[in-house]
Amino acid sequence: MGTRTRDPQPLGTAGALDRMARILADRNITQPSRTAPAAEPDGLSPLEALSAGMPPRYREAVADHPQVLAWAREVAEQAVAPSLGARKQVVTGPSLLMAGVVGAGKTHQAYGAIRLLVRMGLGVRWRATTAADLYASLRPRQGVDSERELAAISRCPLLIIDDLGAAKASEWVEEVTYRLVNRRYNHMLPTLVTTNLAIKDLRAHLGDRVTSRLAQMTTRVQFEPVDRRRLLAT
Ligand SMILES: Nc1ncnc2c1ncn2[C@@H]1O[C@H](COP(=O)(O)OP(=O)(O)OP(=O)(O)O)[C@@H](O)[C@H]1O
Ligand SMILES: [Mg+2]
User: Fold this and answer.
1) How many C-beta neighbours within 10 Å does residue 134 have?
2) pLDDT at 31 over 70
3) Is 208:88 a contact under the CB 8 Å cutoff?
4) Measured from the CB, is residue 165 less than 6 Å from ligand 1?
5) 108 CB less than 6 Å from ligand 1?
6) Measured in angstroms, how far is the CA atom of residue 77 from the centroid of ligand 1?
7) In this predicted model, what pLDDT tens digit does every residue of 172-230 receive, in sequence order?
8) Exposure on the CB side of residue 144, measured as CA atoms within 13 A
9) Does residue 196 line the site of ligand 1, with CB under 6 A?
10) Residue 23, Ramachandran bin (φ over 0: left; ψ between -120 and 50: alpha; else beta)
11) Given this structure, which CATH class describes domain 61-233?
12) Could you give the CA distance from residue 157 to residue 121 in angstroms, rounded to a whole number?
């Protein structure tokens, strides 16, 4: 069998990030679970390691929404170093409910916000999932410990819940969402929620318990009603 060689590539290029993503995949670290900046193999900087764990679409996302920037500052202020001289870690903090039409840039701002925290020098253990993917991963089935998965995602210091309200409503969906939001509410864990729905529709979809908690724990960020995908396509 022959040995394949390849030219060395500079760090920080898309190639390096893709290699990093493959390394993570080989280690069975797959979306939506990503941890940064603890994993910095191959000498990647925290930001490069972080980017490698993000969907390529949002690897370069820059948060520029004033409310998102204010949120990042607050989270940074509440970050705590686990020991003297150690990097500060996101522990507790405020949350955002980013609402707007399809393509308004909500997910871009959410990933950009995590990148910003890492650029600020914070350690961020984070996860990102669409609500629909989360429900799919938690459906009771043989060989999967759904309770453990729900507990893990509930406890994660920083969580993106993308497209809340986009999955088909049911009692089970309402209950799982309640349990997740309630744990994050109780422990004051920073959560970035995106949705296409107006609050009254979220309430109809997920019930009063979820929307009452979201109303208290999140600052609402309303995006301009512009579909950036259509703009980018022209
Ligand atoms: N501030 C920005 N600068 C540059 N590109 C952006 C910005 N915001 C969004 N985009 C791009 O616009 C497109 C749509 O953004 P995004 O996916 O974040 O929208 P969304 O609001 O999450 O939409 P949906 O509700 O359908 O999930 C993406 O290609 C994204 O990379
Ligand atoms: Mg989105």
Assistant:
1) 24
2) no
3) no
4) no
5) yes
6) 27
7) 999 999 999 999 999 999 999 999 999 899 999 999 999 999 999 999 999 999 999 99
8) 9
9) yes
10) alpha
11) alpha beta
12) 16
Whether 104 is in the pocket of ligand 1, judged by its Cβ within 6 Å, is yes
- Give the predicted TM-score (pTM) of the model: 0.85
By CB atoms closer than 10 A (0-12, 13-18, 19+), residue 131 is buried
Taking the centre of ligand 1 as the mean of its atom positions, its distance from the CA of residue 231, in whole angstroms, is 10
Tens digit of pLDDT for each residue in 89-135? 999 999 999 999 999 999 999 999 999 999 999 999 999 999 999 99
Q: Are strands 33-36 and 124-130 parallel, antiparallel or unpaired?
A: antiparallel
Kindly state the average pLDDT of the residues 46-75: 96
pLDDT tens digit string along 132-154? 999 999 998 899 999 999 999 99
Domain segments of the chain as ranges? 61-233
- List, in sequence order, every beta strand (DSSP E) within the chain: 33-36, 95-99, 124-130, 158-162, 191-195, 218-222
For residue 41, cis peptide bond before it (omega within 30 degrees of 0): no
Give the model's pLDDT for residue 41. Answer: 57
